Amino acid sequence: MTWRGICHTLGGICHTPVVRCRLGPVFLPVDDLILYARNARAHPAEQLTRLADSLRRFGFVAPVLVDGSNVVIAGHGRIAAACSLWDAGVDIPRCDRGMLPVLAVEHLTDAQVRAYRIADNKLAALSHFDDVALTAALRELTAAGFEAAALGFDDESLRLLTQDEPEAGGDAPEFGAPIAGAVDPYSLLTFACLVTPGQRDGVLAHLKRFQERFGAASPGQALVGACRRFTSDS
Questions:
Q1: Separation of alpha carbons 5 and 2, rounded Å
Q2: Residue 14: what pLDDT?
């Protein structure tokens, strides 16, 4: 049975239309793509540099998403990174200069497209690394010859993530002084800074992992320890 026949059969079984989009990406000139003027996702220079390095090493492994009018849904950063490589005279593997792999998503309404632009970025930002699995994977990849830039890290971050843990009974990382049991509660201070709700949740999650990994007695102690580790190694 052909793919079209399978879609027709599924539509009859489910009694709902089967969504349609072009089967597989096609290569289009970058000048034919229209950047979304109201894109809410910012791409700082550091990220674009790392995206460009990734494209140079691995090529385009995920196509740019566009709507039926070639307005970009997802991929603004990769387009900018690709153009920066071409402007510098650098080729992208399996990608002719000025041509990008594009997948047209034509089954969504205009409102759904706008919603997906936000959801695509926000949902990805909600995930986080498993520290143990990440450390193991990074050690294997660096042993295989992959540099920090190829993995999306800077040299210092990669070093901290892959360094050996102190042996039991050895010198543990220094953290802020633990709170004594009889401390005067009026001497404790609330530390606050302006963050978004998402950033707040991320900070608390990181502090919790610091507590578990290094044995900090409190989130405050973990914060002090994290700051000391960063400043002592910078």
A1: 5
A2: 39
φ, ψ of residue 177 in degrees (nearest 5): -60, 130
3-state class of 176 per DSSP?
coil
* List of residues 6+ apart from 204 with CB closer than 8 A: 219
Average pLDDT of the residues in 193-219 = 75
- Evaluate whether 141 touches 57 at the Cβ level (below 8 Å): no
Rounded to 5 degrees, what are φ and ψ at 37?
Answer: -65, -25
pLDDT at site 36: 96
Residue 7 class from Cβ within 10 Å (0-12 exposed, 13-18 middle, 19+ buried)? middle
Residue 117, Cβ density class (10 Å: 0-12 exposed, 13-18 middle, ≥19 buried): buried
Torsion of CA 60, 62, 67, 70, to 10 degrees: 0
Q: Cα angle vertex 113, ends 5, 37, to 5°?
A: 135
> Which residue from 155, 200, 141 is spatially nearest to 50, judged by alpha carbons?
155
Instruction: Compute the average pLDDT of residues 58-65.
Output: 95
Token pair recorded at residue 150: 């190829």
